[in-house]
Amino acid sequence: MRILVVRDTHGNYRLLRQVVKAAGPVDLLLHAGDGSSDLTKLAREFPAHSLAAVAGNCDPFSTQPRELLLNVGGQKLFLTHGDRYQVKWDLLRLFLEGQERGADLIVFGHTHCPLINYEQGILLFNPGSLSRNNRGEGPSYGWLELGPGGFEPKLVFTETKSEVKG
User: Fold this and answer.
1) What order do you get walking across the sheet with 75-80 strand by strand?
2) Which of 6, 25, 55, 71 has the maximal Cβ count within 10 Å?
3) What is the pLDDT of residue 111?
4) 2-165 to CATH, choices 3.40.140.10, 3.40.710.10, 3.40.50.1010, 3.60.21.10
């Protein structure tokens, strides 16, 4: 199963569209908030894509939920923007919430900094931002491949075309 993961697009629909078009077939597209206007355009232009999305702190009028718990291929995926868990300071609150929900994977955003981190058997995955990146690495997005061993994460940086696997 191939899952494309984006977040914090903040109106950069041009780059989001480019990434989705280049991705080819995907089984699921996840958007972890701060891009509700982009989601409307995306759903209209790519109606065949299965999309799961949450609202972020910059989506005040969004009809998207703030959090989702999804069953993906027998794995529990917790999707949240992350601002409610103060992820800019540390990941403890987010990890504990994911643990309480029985998540195998937590996908979040808000920090604009990409991250692949394993904590007590839970994968914490932040694909970075398509609008800007706080570490100066340029816009990024993520891939999750679901296989027999669980989720395999990968980060892709759009300006350098480089990849980082977890």
Assistant:
1) 67-72, 75-80, 105-107, 122-126, 115-119
2) 6
3) 92
4) 3.60.21.10
